[in-house]
Amino acid sequence: MSEKILRVDFHTHIISEDFPDLAAKYGDERFPVLDRTCDCGAEIMIKGKSFRKITDQAWDIKKRLEDMDKEGIDIQVLSPIPVTLSYWAEPEAGLELSKSQNDFIASIVKECPERFIGLGTVPLQDVELAILEMDRAIHELGLKGLQIGSNVNGLNLDDPSLESFFAAAEKWNIPLFVHPWATLGGERMPRHNFMYMVGMPSETALAAGSIIMSGLLDKYPSLKICFAHGGGALPYLLPRMDKGWEVWPEIRKTEHPPSHYAKKLYYDSLVYDPVNLQYMIDRFGPEQIIAGSDYPFLLREAPSGKVVDNLMTLSEEEARLIHGENALKFLGLREMATSK
C-alpha cells in the first residue's frame, strides 16, 4: 500500500486583521488600508477606492486550518498579499510595513509550527535596508524565505542596484518567491480583470527572463528562486528566447542559452490545466515544480495540487515531489517530510 503523500501548499497569502493604517499615519492614500465590511470579509482600499475584496480566510487562522483539513493540506506556506509590498514608499515607511508583516507571519507560525511556514517581505526600494530586514526576518524571527515583487518601481530584477540583495540571499541560502505586482501594461488592462489574467503572467515572464538572461545565475549559482503562477508565460517563450540568444551574440551575458538556466529555477503549479502542467514538466523537470494554490483568493486552485492529481501520466514519485517534497527541499526543511 502506498504511503500517504505529504501535501504542502506553497502559494498562500495572509494579512493581519490589525494591518497598520500607514495611509493615515503618513498622509498618503497610496498605502493599502484594510477596511472591514463585515465579520466575514473586508476590502483592501487604495486611494479611497476598493482594490480587492477579501474574505476572513485571509486572516482567520481557525478558518484557514479548517479549510486545510477539509482539502487535505498538511502545510501552508504563508506570504504577504503582493499589493502590500509598497516599494514606492519612502524607505523607512517601507521598512515599517515589512517589519509589521514579518512579525505577524512569524507569530502565526509560532502558534502552529507544524501547519505553517512563513515567508517574509523586505523594502527593496532600499537594498541596504532590505538586507538588514532579511537578516532579521530569517535569523531572528525564523521565517524560511522571502516573497519579493517582480519589479522594483519599474526596475527589472536584473537591475545592478539589486545585485547586492541577491548576493546576500545566496550567501545566507535564503529562498526567494517572486510574485507579480505592479504589472507591465497596466494602463491597457482596466477592463476584463486583465491585470490578473494577462498582466500577471506577462509580468512574471519578464521577471524570470530578466534573471535568466542577466548572468546572475552564473555569478550566484546557488540562488534559490521560485516564480509564481507556473512562471507565467515563460515556459512558452523559452524557445523564442533561446533563438534570440543564438542570433544576437551581442546581447549574451550567459554561458548557456536561456533554457539551461530556466531548469535551475522553481515554479509553482498554479496553471489549472494538466496539459500546461505536463508542458512545464517537459520543460523543467518534475523536481522544479511546487504545488501552490493562491489561497484564499478567487483565482485559487481548490484544493491545492488538483492539477497534479488530474495529470494521469505522473508517477507516484513525481506526484510526491510536486505535492510536498520539492517545497520542503526548496525551503531547506526536508526534515519536516519525515516528521509527518
TrEMBL record:
Where does this protein have coiled-coil stretches? Answer: none
Pathway given for this chain reads: Secondary metabolite metabolism; quinolate metabolism
The chain positions of domain Amidohydrolase-related read 8-333
Q: What is its EC number?
A: 4.1.1.45
Name of this protein:
2-amino-3-carboxymuconate-6-semialdehyde decarboxylase
GO MF annotations, alphabetized: aminocarboxymuconate-semialdehyde decarboxylase activity; hydrolase activity; metal ion binding
Record-level GO BP terms: secondary metabolic process
GO CC terms: cytosol
